[in-house]
């Protein structure tokens, strides 16, 4: 296990104090499992999606969730959901919405935008039953894995966490948190610069990066920088990871005062922060696929389905559709569900033209309604 250490930055920087306009200490803001939706009838890989799409809320799957953050779909249609503040993982029956708590993850230190964040299933989950989690501890952000044993009583089904990777800088803000296994079966980790903007351009720091690791936590073979887990850099706060049918990686990123971003990720590329926010005329920076004002997006999770990236907006309180042709947008982004369900945290593929969508109104920045927070099933095109 590689334990690459970085200094945690605990102080806020000048400018916007948080990623969606709320007060610091109440959270900023993938597909979480790293899987992509299978092709749906009538659409072939590489086909450009239509300029206009649609979203239909099929049903509310579950209600009454507390500070949900990460989502990991199981093969039988059930869902694992992490609670940022309670540091628990809950299994939600995909048909009835019944909730069963697996247990509490020890060592989590919820505060500000930190806590129990992204979760993902091992690429060998069918045989090893391992659940990976990204969380904020008392000293850093880290990735652990735990055995999920369904034979044990509810509340006692999580094994002791095995630390896979540690030393990611923590802060009151910008803790990143999304993890996903890619088509290459490697573990991708989105991190934030913890409020210390200088970390993003420092390739020796783990802050403000996308990391690529083996399931055991070593720098993955083929990474762009020798013996380093760093896959891309110059990020402010990465909270969404997804791959298209051609196995190209996309990531959502919070801007500061001006532009939020959807990026197509190329190994070793520099995405500009803090020198650039959004598109830039400066050479050496990889421009985003598209950009949004921070009050329209403040993006968290993303997923790929039906030829488009679907991006959940927190402050923006809407679901964005970004139709793709290769690694470029093929039409203007389209917004759905604006203001209907409040803050939107996580979106994940549910197979074919279906998506799971998780709201985020109990995180201290939303306006919770009866039943919040909830999981929705969507049909999209």
Automatic annotation (TrEMBL):
Residues 1-19 form the signal peptide. Coiled coil: none annotated. Residues 30-46 have a biased composition (Low complexity). Residues 65-365 form the Glucose/Sorbosone dehydrogenase domain. InterPro entries: 6-blade_b-propeller_TolB-like, Glc/Sorbosone_DH, Quinoprot_gluc/sorb_DH_b-prop. Residues 14-54, 359-381 are annotated as: Disordered. Keywords: Signal. Residues 364-381 have a biased composition (Basic and acidic residues). This is PQQ-dependent sugar dehydrogenase.
């Amino acid at each position: 296990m590689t334990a690459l250490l970085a200094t945690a930055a605990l102080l806020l920087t000048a400018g916007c104090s948080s990623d969606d306009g709320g007060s610091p200490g109440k959270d900023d803001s993938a597909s979480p499992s790293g899987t992509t939706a299978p092709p749906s009838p009538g659409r072939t890989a590489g086909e450009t999606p239509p300029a206009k799409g649609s979203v239909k809320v099929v049903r509310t799957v579950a209600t009454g969730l507390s500070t949900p953050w990460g989502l990991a779909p199981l093969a039988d249609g059930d869902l694992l959901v992490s609670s940022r503040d309670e540091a628990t993982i809950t299994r939600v029956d995909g048909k009835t919405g019944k909730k069963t708590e697996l247990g509490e993850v020890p060592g989590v230190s919820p505060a500000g935008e930190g806590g129990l964040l992204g979760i993902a299933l091992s690429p060998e989950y069918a045989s090893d039953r391992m659940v990976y989690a990204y969380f904020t501890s008392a000293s850093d952000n880290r990735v652990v894995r735990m055995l999920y044993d369904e034979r044990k009583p509810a509340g006692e089904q999580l094994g002791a966490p095995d630390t896979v990777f540690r030393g990611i800088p923590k802060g009151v803000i910008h803790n990143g948190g999304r993890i996903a296994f890619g088509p290459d079966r490697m573990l991708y980790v989105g991190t934030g610069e913890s409020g210390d903007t200088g970390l993003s351009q420092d390739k020796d720091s783990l802050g403000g990066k996308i990391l690529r690791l083996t399931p055991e936590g070593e720098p993955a073979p083929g990474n762009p920088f020798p013996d380093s887990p760093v896959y891309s850099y110059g990020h402010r706060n990465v909270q969404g990871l997804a791959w298209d049918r051609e196995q190209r990686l996309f990531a959502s990123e919070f801007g500061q005062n001006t532009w939020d971003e959807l990026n197509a990720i190329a190994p070793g590329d520099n995405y500009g922060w803090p020198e650039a926010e959004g598109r830039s005329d400066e050479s050496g920076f990889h421009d985003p696929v598209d950009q949004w004002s921070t009050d329209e997006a403040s993006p968290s999770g993303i997923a790929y389905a039906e030829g488009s990236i679907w991006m959940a907006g927190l402050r923006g309180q809407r679901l964005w559709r970004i139709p793709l042709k290769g690694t470029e947008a093929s039409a203007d982004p389209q917004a759905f569900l604006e203001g209907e369900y409040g803050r939107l945290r996580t979106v994940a593929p549910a197979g074919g033209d279906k998506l799971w969508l998780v709201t985020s109104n109990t995180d201290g920045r939303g306006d919770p309604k009866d039943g919040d927070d909830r999981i929705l099933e969507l049909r999209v095109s």
